[in-house]
Amino acid sequence: MFVLLGIGLYMMIANENLVNKLIGVNLFQSSIFLFFVSMAYVDGGSSPIVPAHPTEGDLLVASPLPQVIVLTAIVVGIALTAVGLALIIRIYSEYGTLREDTLQEVRSDE
């Protein structure tokens, strides 16, 4: 998780290419998903369905909330990636480059 977080953060900050920045955002998001899932793990826990006559061992259950949050975040991440790629295509068709420094120079000349 921490390796993916570091690689994603580095790609967002150090790369000049917009596609590589978007890949870095996706790696960063994936590391956060792994973090949530790893924090939700309960050693010896069962599914969150409580039986009709629970014993003391049946009461150790895993919370389904982190998994639901991660599933929602995955959908939001896919939408973010789609919008980002659409913007990148539009920027490339308008300016002919995807390098951030070149785009700043072109925009300052206008």
UniProtKB/TrEMBL annotation:
GO terms for cellular component: membrane. It comes from the Archaea. It is found in: Membrane. It is a multi-pass membrane protein. Keywords: Membrane, Plasmid, Transmembrane, Transmembrane helix. The chain crosses the membrane at residues 21-42, 68-89. This is Cation:proton antiporter. The lineage of its organism: Archaea, Methanobacteriati, Methanobacteriota, Stenosarchaea group, Halobacteria.
